[in-house]
Design brief:
alpha+beta; four-stranded antiparallel β-sheet; elongated
Length: 409
Amino acid sequence: MQQRHSEPTLTASQASFHRRKMDIMAIGEELRLRLHEAEPPLIKDRRYHLKLYANCFVSKEIVDWLVENKEAESRQQAVEVMRTLQDYNVLHHVCDEHEFKDEFLFFRFRRDDGTYPEEPDALAFARGQRIYSKVKLEKNMIKDRKYHLKSYKKSFVGKEFVDWLVANNEAESRDDAVRVGRELLESGVLHHVCDDHHFSDEYLFYRFRNDEGEKKKFSDVLSVFRHMSPSIHRSTTKAKSHSTSTVTPASPTITAGSVRSRRETSPPESRQFSSSSEQSNRVNDDGYVPMSAGPSQRTPMPVPSPSEEQVVLPVTIEELTAPDAPFIRKSVKVVSDPVGYGFVIRGGRPVHIHTVDPAGPAAASGLTVGEYLLSVNGHDVLESTHTEAARLILIGPSTATLVTLKRKS
């Protein structure tokens, strides 16, 4: 199992830039696939002055297509859409001599000529978009699902996705399919509906990022990113390198297992359970991590006020483990449902149970507010922070085995 304790720390600006770049790559890949499927074909081999240019398109024709398909409101806006993709190295002029223009010029997606950035994240995004374009056509694969009276829109079951990957030769075996699913999750292509689980060959609900929120036009998305984009100097001279522009700052390097770092791109909006699945795995500003769905995902559980909240008295590790300490050792197994585990952890050294959803699996297993964590899935967490303990739960199996200390009545 891959360890995540050595994940690099991103600044807010680095994380924002990385997320922006990944979003644009995903959108560019969606556009590329649609243009390949267009009738008549827009991406094809073309000749000019007896020379063959493979898998290219005419910039003027793409501007026509974007306007006709209402993906851009004007020809000028369509040009801005394509220039944004060019800025982020999604496409380029076949000879690297032109900025995108509304003229008879040949351009090509870098995915079609092998000059696409070889970053693992970029490749995973491209593969994820290709898989998504096929999966969304499958009947009853992506659909609204209900669990405990709550609806999870446009979701799919991990186990069924594994079946599909193997049946469609996207994976050689079920283990390989899990590897593919985890790669897509770690790159932000898909995620568990409450961000409580890594990808698993189990009855758990997941969702593609493409299905988050309302469908937007390419111009709606890319125009926003263009105004936020880093300073870019375009080269209009012929270059042998496939990089036709210099982007500053450089995209940060992130290890393959970095799931949480991509989500922690801005401060949480409150100290409650997150109202968005995108936020549910963030660390709150006063130091606690929800291991549950939150009020938008399960039966609403209001965060208790100071007068209602059970007081968790400050305690040191020495006091907690003293021979005559007033605590009872207990072991619980919390089996996640497709929504999540149903509890929140807080603090550190030691970590304690801050909130328990009365309708969730944690409450059903006997976990209560105020218990201190000794171990998670066999790993000692007495000296751990809440984020380290949360990682052990999130990357583990669907059953979290917890050993806790509960204060005697």
